[in-house]
Design goal:
The mean pLDDT is 96. The protein folds into 2 domains: 136 residues, Aspartate Aminotransferase, domain 1 (Alpha-Beta Complex), CATH 3.90.1150.10; 240 residues, Aspartate Aminotransferase, domain 2. It is built from 14 helices and 17 strands. The protein is globular, with a radius of gyration of 21 Å. A hairpin with a 3-residue loop joins strand 16 and strand 17. The chain starts with 15 loop residues before the first strand and ends with a helix. A 7-stranded mixed β-sheet has the order 4-12-11-10-7-5-6, sandwiched between helices. By secondary structure, the chain is α/β, with parallel strands linked by helices. Helix 2 runs antiparallel to helix 10 and helix 3 packs parallel to helix 10.
């Protein structure tokens, strides 16, 4: 008999009753260091007093009114994003997949409204992950995720990641734009090279295309800058963000230049919940923390410190982990053993992580973690690696 809660997930047999900073406490009393952060979502960790206070205060006033009326909290949040980014305008929604859907709609609409309606195709990259809706499954292009859901949504072409020659070869008369994650998360914590990102910007300028960035997982301070593309010194035309945007409250956003955003006039796009007072109160609170002087520099410092310590673990246990990869606090350990085995070994030591593609274990802790948290995590990883060392009998069997 099917469970009352639809069995869509292979859930670990863990349930948490409270959290503090980078730590979670299970209902059975065990304590875990959270280097999964709700899949890179709990950007300020657990129980952050400023975020909790902002949500509680707003919940006591008004949570939802719909976009039939002005939402002052959304107006303030949009203005702050415009001030802090390349964008001229923002649209708020509920999730990363919804933000990516809206971004592709913006690309197509901008082309149609400027006399180029034949341009509707978007070039995406092998190893991408853009969400679980029908169109975003097609944009992702992973056959495992597409299986059983009927014909693929048309309009998406895929080329190898970090390959500018393949990208330029794929541009055709129906191409509207490019959609790229500056750091592929689900695909195995694979960062785009900075020259690759610059080359994408140059190709879009040369061919009159729209450059779209998916920063759902790698944005919101996770790389040590507010947005990951900033490291390349370029800007997209439109960008999706979500996950850490509201510290765990469900929210997404599309940030765009005027040239792209102005074509979404009333009636062309919408959302019931997106950008409601409660979500925007949470997102404004997160911005208060992330944009505070010195915060992003501290993320960068802690990330470099953690990277150095993880490289020492790789050097110590090459039969278990072979590589550290990523950027900032979106890091991955590539396994020489199955990543599920690594993930379970880390959990047994008290560290929560997230599996990713290419046999990688994701390390995406809250941005507010301390140096002591980093040191504790590295020791847990070291002990977990020892659990996974091949035994003499297993080596002989091979």
């Amino acid at each position: 008999m099917i469970s009352a809660l639809m069995p869509t997930y292979n859930r670990a047999d863990l349930a948490f009753e409270r959290g503090e900073g980078a730590w979670l406490y299970a209902v059975d009393g065990r304590r875990f260091l959270d280097f999964g952060a709700g899949i890179a979502t709990s950007s300020l960790g657990h129980g952050h007093p400023h975020l909790v206070g902002a949500i509680a205060e707003q919940a006591g006033r008004v949570m939802h009114t719909s976009n039939l009326y002005r939402v002052p909290q959304a107006e303030r949040l949009a203005a702050r994003y415009v001030e802090a980014s390349f964008a001229d305008s923002a649209f708020f929604c509920n999730s990363g997949a919804e933000a990516n859907e809206g971004m592709v709609k913006m690309m197509r609409k901008a082309m149609s409204e400027t006399g180029r309606g034949e341009r509707y195709r978007v070039i995406c990259f092998d190893g991408a992950f853009h969400g679980r809706t029908l169109a975003m499954l097609a944009a992702t292009g992973n056959k495992k995720y597409l299986a059983g859901f009927g014909p693929e949504v048309d309009g998406f072409d895929h080329v190898p990641f970090n390959n500018l020659n393949a990208l330029r070869d794929a541009i055709g008369p129906e191409t509207a734009g490019i959609l790229v994650e500056p750091v592929q998360g689900e695909g195995g914590i694979r960062p785009a090279s900075l020259d690759f990102l610059r080359g994408l910007r140059a190709a879009c300028d040369e061919f009159g295309l729209i450059l779209g960035m998916d920063e759902v997982q790698c944005g919101m301070g996770r790389t040590g800058k507010l947005f990951a593309h900033e490291w390349a010194g370029i800007a997209p035309d439109v960008m999706s963000i979500a996950k850490g945007i509201a510290g765990g409250f469900p929210m997404g956003a599309i940030l765009a230049t005027e040239a792209v955003a102005k074509h979404l006039v009333p009636g062309t796009h919408g959302t019931t919940f997106g950008g409601n007072p409660l979500a925007c109160a949470a997102a404004n609170a997160v911005l208060d923390v992330i944009l505070a002087p010195g915060f992003l520099a501290e993320v960068d410092r802690k990330a470099r410190r953690l990277w150095s310590a993880l490289e020492a673990v790789v050097a110590e246990y090459p039969a278990v982990v072979t590589e550290v990869r990523g950027a900032g606090l979106i890091l991955g350990l590539k396994g020489a053993v199955p990543n599920t085995e690594l993930q379970n070994a880390f959990a047994a030591e008290g560290l929560l992580t997230v599996a990713a593609g290419d046999n990688v274990v994701r390390l995406v802790p809250p941005l507010v973690l301390t140096d002591a948290d980093c040191d504790a995590a590295v020791e847990m990883i070291r002990r977990g690696a020892r659990r996974c060392l091949p035994t003499p009998s297993s080596v002989a069997a091979k």
